[in-house]
Structure to design on (220 residues):
């Protein structure tokens, strides 16, 4: 079976056309379209863990996935480079993310986390697909994770990075396929779960597995 990667909203696709986005239609809010009949963020992400539960999981984490990441090669972006990268990424953010995060500042804060934890010479959104973009932030169970405070919530939660990327940047067509997958980290076409290149996220495969001890988190 051919491997199908995620498409970036607002970018040119191989067929030469642009995906039509429901939120660009007059007077139509994101949740009114057929694909967005439920909160898309809730559909894409698993139930929030408590801080205590997250810390317990982190202590029990084992590296079950191999990665070619080399921490010693990591070149961090300066704050000026972070802001420049965020400004570029904001142009490709899907309207669903702008509505969910409510303010430009809230979305920018998430994008800044992505920029700070990836190499300044690599681009996880717009970079060439032949090159992996490794995560140099928090890791749980061998998967890239990030901390964020969701709108209408006061406590911090932990979320898989490749799911955040998909929520912010994926086309409607890609997103509709992703929300049907288990609420686990997505499988990457490069088989490197510390790579967060948006173009490496697979649409036609099961999500990457997690330990059986985590199954109870999915039963709500």
């Amino acid at each position: 079976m051919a491997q199908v990667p995620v498409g970036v909203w607002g970018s040119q696709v191989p067929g030469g056309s642009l995906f039509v986005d429901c939120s660009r239609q007059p007077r139509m809010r994101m949740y009114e379209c057929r694909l967005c009949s439920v909160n898309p963020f809730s559909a894409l992400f698993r139930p929030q863990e408590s801080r205590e539960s997250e810390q317990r999981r982190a202590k029990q984490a084992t590296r079950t996935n191999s990665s070619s990441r080399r921490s010693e090669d990591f070149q961090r972006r300066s704050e000026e480079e972070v802001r420049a990268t965020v400004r570029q990424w904001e142009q490709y953010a899907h309207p669903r993310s702008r509505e969910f995060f409510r303010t430009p500042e809230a979305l920018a804060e998430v994008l800044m986390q992505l920029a700070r934890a990836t190499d300044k010479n690599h681009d996880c959104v717009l970079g060439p697909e032949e090159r992996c973009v490794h995560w140099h932030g928090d890791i749980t169970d061998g998967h890239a994770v990030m901390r964020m405070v969701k709108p209408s919530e006061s406590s911090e939660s932990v979320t898989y990075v490749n799911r955040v990327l998909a929520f912010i940047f994926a086309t409607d067509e890609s997103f509709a396929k992703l929300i049907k997958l288990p609420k686990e980290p997505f499988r990457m076409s490069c088989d490197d779960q510390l790579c967060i290149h948006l173009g490496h996220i697979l649409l036609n495969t099961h999500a990457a597995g997690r330990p059986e001890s985590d199954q109870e988190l999915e039963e709500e």
